[in-house]
Design a protein that fits this description.
The structure holds two protein chains of two kinds.
Chain A: H1 2-31, H2 37-57, H3 60-77, H4 85-105, H5 115-129, H6 131-154, H7 157-162, E1 188-195, H8 207-216, E2 220-225, E3 243-249, H9 254-260, E4 269-274, H10 292-297, H11 307-313, H12 329-334, H13 344-367, H14 370-374, H15 377-396, E5 397-399, H16 401-404, H17 407-418, E6 422-427, E7 432-434, H18 435-456, H19 460-465, E8 472-481, E9 484-491, H20 498-507, H21 519-525, H22 547-556, E10 560-566, E11 570-578, E12 583-591, E13 594-599, E14 603-607, E15 614-617, E16 621-626, E17 629-635, H23 636-639, E18 653-659, E19 662-668, E20 670-678, E21 692-697, E22 703-707, H24 709-717
Parallel strand pairs in A: 6-8, 13-22, 17-19
Antiparallel strand pairs in A: 1-3, 1-4, 2-3, 5-7, 8-9, 9-11, 10-11, 12-13, 12-20, 14-18, 15-16, 16-17, 18-19, 21-22
Helix pairs in contact in A: 1-2, 1-4, 2-3, 3-4, 3-5, 3-6, 4-5, 5-6, 13-15, 17-18, 18-22, 20-21
Chain B: H1 3-19, E1 27-35, E2 38-43, E3 47-52, E4 66-72, E5 75-81, H2 82-85, E6 98-104, E7 107-113, E8 115-123, E9 128-129, H3 135-138, E10 141-149, E11 159-166, H4 168-171, H5 175-180
Parallel strand pairs in B: 2-11, 5-7
Antiparallel strand pairs in B: 1-2, 1-8, 3-6, 4-5, 6-7, 9-10, 10-11
Classes of the chains: A alpha+beta, B alpha+beta.
Chain lengths: 729, 181
């Protein structure tokens, strides 16, 4: 049972994280000035859901904090508190504490000290809405978890023993509420019947909490059905056997009522009917399938109450059967949330299989005679395969917003730590990339933003002296171009101090003292291993493990980093990443008996050199004359230190590839094929090798290495030859 | 692993079970193999399969002992020349050369050895710590154990041989990254 609970709890935490993302997005929108009802309601719902789940799972600290936060949001939603900038700012801070609470509830972090934040929230509540709600908040928060703990252990025992023969009498249950007599004058606007599923308690959904929530909204428990209660001997002490009739005042909206049922277990029966209705005591087996066996034994179903039909006769609002632990039934009708949760590893498996299918498909095509290739089945099969592949890729595509979502908070904390004021601009959050990419850009992104705030953006005073606005600006953008995604972090800070960077690099022995480097090369030095210019080691950055880690992470993804910096104006870091890490459109080439794959996206054209078209220049470098333009040529065999091919240049093929450093020709023996390949990363069993984007398995079972053209050409051009990772030992 | 290998292993296992005497303390199965003139052993539990030698796809810019990568049922697995890794002359390939594919902390790697010898059970208590003979070797040898060798000829006078148990963790081809860091 505890395993089940763990599973459900895992789902709860997943929903928490989604809720947090929604809340943060909403709060940010509010902070930007859009305080429309929809936005506020969205945030409220998210926090409310977290509170509900927290209560159900006994995360008291999380529950009581989210409760107070929710109260404030409720006041704002109801228009009793104006969502001023001050309020929004504090709500964002409260959100941060809430995130910490969620982390703590998951055991990832210690329980945060929320006393100060709670005091702030309470103060805001008092300021805005008078003392009633603040009092409410103060008293409810501590009492709810305590009551819940009690209910878990003993809540049902006294009930069973005391009123076994009173199943038609609601009175003994009034002690669940506030003890007051039913307020007849306050005509009930809603009549609710709530029969939690038998497993409700085991599933972590505590009916008592729902009842308390309804009572808080002004509801009254007017009846309890005890018909399905078995004899003591047969009773499961953790089972839920009762059904309640509750009346709610008309002032409560239907959606509020439904929200109260957000966290009841699946298969519970929730009927919400409009109109004044006296409690309905009967339960028919059809209505309460779980109770069926017991209902047979006890003659409850025959006692038909005249009020029940009255309630059901209302044509305007037929009873709604909600499937709890899912969005409310009503919302379902509006936007059908046809989502299922799928384990990512299953998607990975599917993608792998589709990849193999693609490969087999092209092998099949190769093996067939040309006459057979013309037949309609083969192109059709190829089309279907490609469509499956596209669809699987689409399944894994996620908006990059997920990676951006933690940036606002990080920036708030960075600003607080560095005492700087930085505004964040984000664009292109909807750009979709493969899930694997999203997972892996978080860390590089964090480093780049830390760098920008810590090193790039100046203090407010310094900025004013330079005639810049006091508030710094950080732009985070994502953009898709072809099969690559461009991710930019741009600040309007002081730019890279090239003199200092160069001095530091010389001091650290990264470059020779007499080296002459271009501005671009100097900028790139900040990515060199062990380089850090921070004068003092701060907790934010400056430990010298920043940018080189970023670079190696990005390169491991088959991407690269570009740095552009204008002194006094700012620095832009651009991460250029592949859209997917799984499948590559490649050109298979042969060299010294081995096959290699070049990403087709890099290939511009291929040429078989004419005699005299290749010309040696300087020492050991060559160019090829391409219609009057000289393009440098690298011999792949030399780059890989393979034995020189004993074939004439004219028998070889030069593949012109596009790189950051302009077009470059790569000389290989022959071109074999064009093929989609499934990328197998080398670091799965080995480690990434610079110049290789991974490996792939060809149709005959042999392995072909995938070339990382950028890294290959960069390492060939580099004056001080990169220390290849594999050579380190 | 092809069919004959499997058959070989089965007979080996059967033989070793017969040869094993009941010992009280914990036993482990080790796979012994020859490299040069020495007998080495690795934990049977780490072994995934024994493959015939097949030229792997060479990798650029890697230490010489990494012979390349090979396809192990859809996984790209590095192949390490164990002799070179230990700082010896490279093994000369012959008909009995084979690759021991092992699992080292979830990562797979193949090691080229001269010949697989046997599968034996040894008691944990019989394993002695490796003496500090030579710096390079002790670092990868976890312990020494004496086993009775099955007689190659028909004579039944068993003689004891010493097996050096390898510490696979230390031989992992990904390990030098940590060293370099």
């Amino acid at each position: 049972m505890s395993d089940d609970l763990d599973d459900i709890q895992a789902i709860f935490f997943e929903e928490c994280n989604e809720g947090l993302a929604t809340a943060e997005a909403g709060l940010s929108t509010m902070a930007d000035g859009d305080t429309s009802a929809d936005v506020i309601a969205g945030v409220f719902r998210a926090v409310h859901s977290i509170k509900g789940g927290a209560g159900a799972f006994g995360h008291e600290a999380l529950q009581s904090f989210s409760h107070i936060f929710e109260n404030l949001l409720d006041e704002v939603r109801a228009g009793r508190i104006e969502p001023t900038a001050h309020i929004c700012k504090n709500m964002l801070l409260a959100f941060d504490v809430l995130s910490d609470h969620v982390q703590a509830a998951q055991g990832f972090a210690p329980v945060p000290d929320d006393a100060a934040m709670l005091a702030t929230l309470e103060a805001l509540l008092v300021e805005g809405a008078g003392d009633a709600h603040a009092e409410d908040a103060a008293t409810l928060a501590p009492s709810a978890p305590a009551a819940e703990g009690e209910a878990d252990e003993f809540g049902f025992m006294p009930v069973v023993v005391d009123i076994e023969d009173l199943d038609q009498d609601p009175d003994p249950f009034m002690d669940l509420g506030d003890g007051e007599a039913p307020r007849a004058a306050e005509a009930a606007g809603w009549s609710i019947r709530f029969a939690p599923s038998r497993e409700a308690m085991a599933n972590g959904s505590e009916p008592l909490l729902v009842l308390r929530e309804l009572e808080r909204m002004g509801g009254e428990v007017v009846g309890v059905e005890t018909g399905s209660l078995p004899s003591l001997r047969e009773m499961d002490p953790e089972g839920a056997y009762f059904a309640w009739s509750i009346e709610m005042p008309a002032s409560v909206t239907r959606s509020d009522i439904e929200e109260a049922f957000d966290f009841v277990a699946p298969d519970s029966v929730v009927d919400i009917a409009e109109g004044v209705a006296a409690p309905s005591q009967d339960s028919t087996p059809a209505e309460q399938p779980e109770a069926a066996p017991e209902a047979d034994a006890q003659p409850v179903s025959t006692a038909s109450s005249p009020n029940a039909p009255a309630a059901e006769d209302k044509p305007s609002e037929p009873p709604v059967k909600a499937v709890p632990a899912a969005p409310p039934a009503e919302a379902k009708a509006i936007e059908p949330p046809q989502n299922i949760r799928v384990d990512v590893s299953k998607l990975d498996m599917l993608l792998n299989l589709v990849g193999e299918l693609v490969i087999r498909n092209s092998i099949l095509a190769d093996r067939l005679s040309s006459a057979d290739q013309q037949r309609v089945e083969l192109p059709e099969l190829a089309r279907l395969t490609r469509e499956i592949q596209d669809n699987v890729m689409a399944l894994r595509a996620q908006p990059i917003r997920q990676a951006f979502s933690r940036v606002p908070r990080m920036l708030r904390e960075l600003c607080a730590a560095t005492n700087k004021d930085v505004a964040l601009e984000m664009s292109g959050e909807a750009t979709e990339v493969d899930k694997s990419v999203i997972e892996k850009i978080g860390e590089p992104l964090t480093h780049m933003i830390r760098n920008a705030v810590d090193h790039g953006i100046e203090s407010a005073q310094e900025r004013i002296e330079k005639g810049k606005p006091a508030q710094g600006n950080l732009r985070l953008s994502a953009e898709q171009r072809g099969a690559r995604i461009f991710l930019r972090v741009a600040d309007d800070g002081r730019g890279i101090d090239r003199e200092r960077v160069l001095a530091k690099a010389v001091e650290k022995g990264i470059v020779a003292a007499d080296a002459t480097l271009s501005d671009e090369e100097i900028d790139n030095l900040i990515c060199a291993p062990g380089f850090s210019t921070a004068e003092t080691i701060s907790s934010i950055s400056g430990r010298g493990v920043g940018m080189d880690v970023v670079r190696s992470n990005v390169e491991a993804l088959g991407g690269r980093i570009e740095i552009t910096s204008v002194p006094g104006k700012g620095t832009t870091f651009t991460m250029i990443l592949p859209l997917t890490l799984a499948i590559l459109d490649g050109m298979v080439v042969r060299l010294c008996g081995q096959r290699y794959v070049l990403p087709l996206s890099n290939v511009v054209e291929t040429v078989q050199p004419e005699p005299g078209q290749m010309r040696p220049v300087a020492n050991s470098s060559e160019v090829i004359d391409m219609r009057g333009t000289y393009v440098p040529v690298k011999r792949l065999s030399e780059l890989f230190q393979l034995p020189p091919a004993d074939r004439e240049d004219e028998d070889s093929v030069v593949i012109i590839v596009e790189t950051d450093a302009g077009n470059v020709g790569l000389m290989v023996d022959t071109i074999e094929d064009r093929r989609e390949v499934v990328i197998k990363s080398l670091d799965q069993n080995l480690y990434p090798i610079r110049g290789l984007g991974g490996a792939t398995i060809l149709g005959d079972g042999s392995i072909a290495l995938i070339l990382d053209i950028e890294a290959l050409v960069a390492s060939a051009n580099s004056p001080n030859k990169f220390v290849l990772k594999g050579m380190a030992a | 692993m092809n069919a004959t290998d499997t058959a070989d292993l089965n007979t080996m296992t059967a033989a070793s079970v017969q040869a094993t005497e009941a010992v009280d303390d914990a036993e482990r199965k080790i796979v012994t193999f020859l490299l040069g003139k020495q007998t080495f052993g690795i934990d049977m539990s780490a072994l995934i399969e024994i493959r015939e030698w097949e030229d792997p796809t060479p990798l650029p810019s890697v230490p010489a002992y990494i012979k390349g990568v090979t396809n192990l049922r859809g996984h790209v697995v590095p192949v390490v020349g164990l002799a070179e890794r230990l700082g010896w002359e490279p093994s000369v390939l012959h008909a009995r050369s084979c690759i021991l594919v092992v699992n080292i902390g979830g990562k797979h790697a193949g090691f080229l050895v001269d010949e697989v010898a046997d599968i034996v059970s040894v008691a944990d208590s019989a394993i002695q710590p490796a003496p500090e003979v030579e710096v390079t070797e002790t670092s990868v040898i976890r312990g020494l154990v004496e086993i009775g060798q099955r007689s190659q000829d028909s004579s039944d006078n068993k003689h004891q041989i010493m097996v050096s148990l390898l510490d696979l963790e230390k031989l992992s081809p990904t390990r030098h990254l940590d060293l370099a860091a």
